[in-house]
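Recap for those who missed Tuesday's class. We walked through two folding examples back to back. For each one, the amino acid string is listed first and its predicted structure tokens come directly after. Nothing is annotated here on purpose, so try labeling regions yourself before you check the end of the notes.
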Amino acid sequence: MTDAEALLEAAWQALEDGASRRKALFHLATLASRDSEGAPRVRTLVLRRVERRPARLRFHTDTRSAKWQGLELDDRAEACFHHPDHPLQVRAAGRAVLLSQGEVWAEAWQGTPTMSRRCYCSLGAPGSPLDDPARSMPEELRDRRPTLEESEAGRDRFGVLILEIETLDILSLDSTGHRRLIAVGDALQWVHP
């Protein structure tokens, strides 16, 4: 294994750890894309699944969100993973695939805990005006976890966002000298940090 292959493996392992453990350093990603008017937007998403071949990352989101609407118009996106306690910064750029039905979507919905499903029960779309922040949820769900049956109210608002990775940009931060590697498919190229 070359140094480049070792660095690529470390990046994949950090991503896989992020998808499997809530307290992992790469559990949260900053996703950059454009909104429906073409303006750049960034937001934080929870990493839900990682696949190496084909290279994909999976996130969950509300289908009513501006993020979803923007990605329907321009599917280009980039997810950035960095934590001050981790020596790597990993950026994954590619195309977003949005799923609001089908087998992958259904499997993701079934695997989502009721407390997470509660997010999709919100009365308004993310970013829509709200007079009282305490009233974003239906009254019966404001202070408790929904039952499985109650959580089904959010089913039609639940979306799966799959980022099909075209490029991985891995920056290894080191006081003796940073190293940066670009991975496109099986091709690896060192670049100036």
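Example two. Treat it independently of the first, because the proteins are unrelated.
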Amino acid sequence: MKIKIKDYPTFVKEWDRKEIEEKTVKILKKIGKLQNKMLAQNKYSLLVILQGTDASGKDGVTKGLLKYCNPIGVKIHSFKKPTEIEYAHDFLWRVHQVVPRKGDMQIFIRSHYEDILVPSVEKFIPAEVIEKRYQLINDFEKLVEHNGTRILKFFMNVSKEVQEERLMERVELKEKHWKHKDGDWDTREKFDEYLAVYERIINTCNIIPWHIVPSDKNWQKLYFVADIVLKTLEEMDLEWPELVSERFKK
């Protein structure tokens, strides 16, 4: 069945904020303990991919998700416009450089999907080249998982109205001026076009499934993402490693 983004809520009315925030704290603490165990075991890794329109809350989720994690085992990579060197390689070259090593929890703020999303809307790469990238990404993600990395993919589903509010905050609030880019407003004019491409991505690059996150409220999106991250870590065969010592042999 084809997934349609419009069928997914940007806000869940039934959730009680106080109850959800209390649950979230407990979940985040459990994530911290399991992430530390994953780091110590040095056998598996976790890659969390966050995609969404401008101001959908990718940075905020990242900050909240890692509150109780061991920073030694956490890596964050924010994908920007490819550099001249990156352009000189295949489009997945720069991505493969930063996939998590064993033991690490890696977060991608934007990802390889930008190399389908942006050129599809802005039309600076031939359509036949972009079309081949869907399958190449599916194969790439299978390769990464084959190496012991679990991949979680989240689409931050924010309404057009809330996006505008957040973009205006970057204009009006001094502490958020650093986030403002005039280009974000140009991109906003193509909001529906970008969503259409996202929908194609979600339905085509779905061997590893996508999770569509209600993102109009910060407390809801953090809970939604954290709950799935915790369940995934709990499913992994995480164990504290045995002592390796010549001095203290059993």
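Answers for example two:
Residues 6-235 form a domain with the Rossmann fold fold (CATH 3.40.50.300).
The longest strand covers residues 149-157.
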